Amino acid sequence: MKFKKILKLFSILFIIVAIISVGYISFNFRKVQFLYYSKIARDSEKLIHVVDKTIEENTDADWALSYKLTRYKYIKQNPEDEERLYKRLMDIYAKRIEMNPDDPENYLDRAGFNAGKNTFFPDMGMMGNPEIPWDLIIADVEKAVELDPEPNDPEVYSKRGVIYFSAGIYKKAISELTKYIQHDKKELNAYYMRARAYFEDDQYEKAVVDLKILNEKDPKTYKSIIPDWGYTYMAEGKYDKAVKAFNEVLKHNPNHRDTYWGRAGVYEKMYQYDEAVKDFTKVFELDNSWLSALIHRAWCYMKMDELDKALDDCNYVLSKETDNGEAYYYRGCVYGKKEEFDKVLFNLDMAAKYKPDWVVPYISKGQFYLEMKEYDKAIDSYDQALMKEPWNKKAYYCKAIACEEAGRLNNAVIAYKLYLEHSKPEEKSTRDFVNQRIKELE
């Protein structure tokens, strides 16, 4: 009898445990599926299905909302849905903070998502969610630090460090990343991020120490990421730092073709054409199949008024690739500087033929016709460019000038207004000029 009671009791307990387990598994099953499919392909249909199903079943699943929001392609296709999902995610964080204001994780999660949104997904928010002010993001981080200054989970230091770095608060980023490294000296990303923070903070010697550690621990990773670092600075317009990053690579690998290519591109941006020529020459020496190095070298020679050398490079490329649109374009530009105008249009037309989606030859043709005072042909060329890129502000600006010269004042005003629509507020001097012209023409 006792045995039956015990058996019955165990049966009841088993059923209760089973129910709880089923509930737990059903709640986490989607996340398990998500992790599995994300290993296979980040944007696979199965993965998207899991995320959509999760949100349908549990509208508070912040990880699913975060994933869906940070899919750039999805955002571009569904901006209204993006706005709704973003507000939902922010509501979830706000609700959690309201219910448990002493939980630092909620503040840090909200800060982390918004920092990522600002840094990696600047186009999010076209439907009413602009960039989140960094002071609000940092306020969340500071609150998390206040509530948990010495977290048990060292990953928290890493998260805080990355957010501080993204916000440009490099000393605090260094402090948090240092604490993380003290807990986990094997985590290479922490050394990489701290080195970047030192670099940004102009503490170059300390940055080099971290880079050496990274190189010692994983030379393969080091060699692959440091050129990327240089390209990152280049994209951010931090050209001096980009050159230093590329120089660091060349100390360890003096024949790294991609690094010379990257540094040459930076020198081009800095108008240091003589240095760019040296690096493009080195690229071609290391890999004589890389004809783009000669095309860019030709551009630099042209800027240095070494027109025969520029022409030689373009002709060499076209002897190897008769359909190279860029080589035709740059050769056309060289002939323009040499005032051999009968050859300019042929080369620009060939550039457009072999690179039909490239608007630059059409804009250059427009400028050529503008200088020749053939205004109707100039306008037609700009219109061809705008058919391919309706957002091209340079084409609108040039078209407006051509329309003015042709006496098409109404069309000039329209083109000027479209320039304003597609240009950025920081382009103040040009925008001021355009606004003045509109006032005078209307």
Describe the structure in your own words.
This protein has 442 residues and is mostly helical. The protein has a domain at 1-99. Helices cover 79% and strands 0% of the residues. It is built from 24 helices and no strands. The chain has helices at residues 2-40, 45-57, 62-69, 72-77, 79-99, 104-120, 134-147, 155-166, 170-183, 188-200, 204-217, 219-235, 239-252, 257-269, 273-286, 292-303, 307-320, 325-337, 341-354, 360-371, 375-388, 393-406, 409-422, 428-441. Helix 11 runs antiparallel to helix 12. It starts with a helix and ends with a helix.
Please describe the topology of this protein.
Elements: H1 2-40, H2 45-57, H3 62-69, H4 72-77, H5 79-99, H6 104-120, H7 134-147, H8 155-166, H9 170-183, H10 188-200, H11 204-217, H12 219-235, H13 239-252, H14 257-269, H15 273-286, H16 292-303, H17 307-320, H18 325-337, H19 341-354, H20 360-371, H21 375-388, H22 393-406, H23 409-422, H24 428-441
Structural category is mainly alpha
Count of distinct strands = 0
**Sheet with most strands:** none
Mean pLDDT: 78
Estimate the global geometry from the Cα principal axes: flat
Number of helices: 24
Could you tell me the radius of gyration in angstroms?
29 Å
Q: Which regions contain 5 or more consecutive residues with pLDDT less than 50?
A: 1-44, 72-77, 120-129
Order of helix and strand elements from N to C terminus: HHHHHHHHHHHHHHHHHHHHHHHH
- The helix fraction, in percent, is over 70%
In angstroms, what separates the terminal alpha carbons?
A: 102 Å
Portion in beta strands: under 5%
